[in-house]
Each structure stands twice: as C-alpha cells, then as structure tokens.
Write a structure and sequence with these properties.
With 170 residues, the protein is mostly helical. The chain contains ten helices and no strands.
C-alpha cells in the first residue's frame, strides 16, 4: 500500500491523505481504518486514532489485531480497564497472539498488578522470543519487583533485538 511506504519514508501527511482516499473509496475497509489509526496515533491525534480503531472493530469484530491495537491506544490514553478488556478479547480470538499479552501486561502494570503483568510478558516472550517490547516491559516490572539482574538481562535482550530489527529494515 502506497500510504504505508510514504509513512515509512517519513511523509506522514502524504500517508494520511492516501489512507483518507482509500477509506473514501472503500468505507468498509477495516484494515485501512486500523492503519490510519496507527498513523493518527503517531501524529498525536489519539482521539482520531481511537475513532478509527472503534470503526475497524465495528467493521470486523473478529479482528484480534484491531482489539490489540485499541488496547495499546487505550493504555496510552489512561483507560487501562478498557485496554484490559480489549486485550482479553484479542487473546480470546487468537490465544497465541503475543502482542495481545504484551498489551494486557501494560494494562495490568498500570493498574498495579505487577505479578499479572509479569505473567503476561512471560507469555508474550514464550510465544515470540523476538518481541523486543515485551522484554523491555518485563525488565521494568522485574526492576520494580527488585530483580535487578533479571531486569538488566531483559533490557540487554531488548536492546539487541531492537538493534537487529532496525538493521533488517535498512
């Protein structure tokens, strides 16, 4: 999709225009709403992103990706109960979805459930050992629980994975 390429190349406004056109031409394209929501979030339009996420779910209520995306957005907006609910739905739809566990871990952590967050990050890593964000998030929990060595190990692994993934994109 041209919009994705424009976004990756730094032309965020051009990408937004392309997503707007795709949605204008096909207003039932839930994938286009999901991608536009991500872009709007990057651009700081969190409410617009939430509206697009809601529309994507309305159009495709069986999309675990849409629920997981909205969970992450809700956490950013401080709606951790909503994020927890969306993550649970995403996990119910696709029990092996590592990002849904990661997002649920964020919500649980923000709600003060550090042990629940740790379990979710462990599950996300078990499902995808290359999930750098889950390692980073688990490191934060480990650090706050007093496991400094575990935190250092996870932060190192996260850094290594981020470096590898960035090098592969170039």
């Amino acid at each position: 999709m041209r919009a994705r390429l424009k976004s990756e190349l730094g032309n965020k406004q051009g990408a937004l225009q392309d997503y707007n056109k795709v949605i204008e031409l096909n207003p039932i394209d839930d994938f286009a709403y999901r991608l536009r929501a991500r872009l709007k979030s990057e651009l700081g339009d969190k409410q617009g992103a939430l509206q697009d996420s809601n529309k994507a779910i309305e159009l495709n209520p069986k999309s675990s990706f849409a629920y997981s995306d909205r969970a992450a957005l809700r956490s950013e907006l401080g709606d951790n109960q909503g994020a927890l609910q969306d993550s649970n739905i995403a996990i119910k739809l696709v029990p092996e979805f590592d990002n849904a566990y990661n997002n649920r871990g964020v919500a649980r952590y923000n709600l003060g459930d550090k042990q629940g967050a740790l379990q979710d990050y462990n599950k996300a890593i078990q499902l995808n050992a290359k999930n750098a964000t889950a390692y980073n998030n688990r490191a934060e929990v480990r650090y706050n629980l007093g496991d400094k060595q575990g935190a250092i190990k996870d932060w190192q692994q996260a850094a290594n994975l981020y470096l590898q993934q960035n090098m592969q994109r170039q």
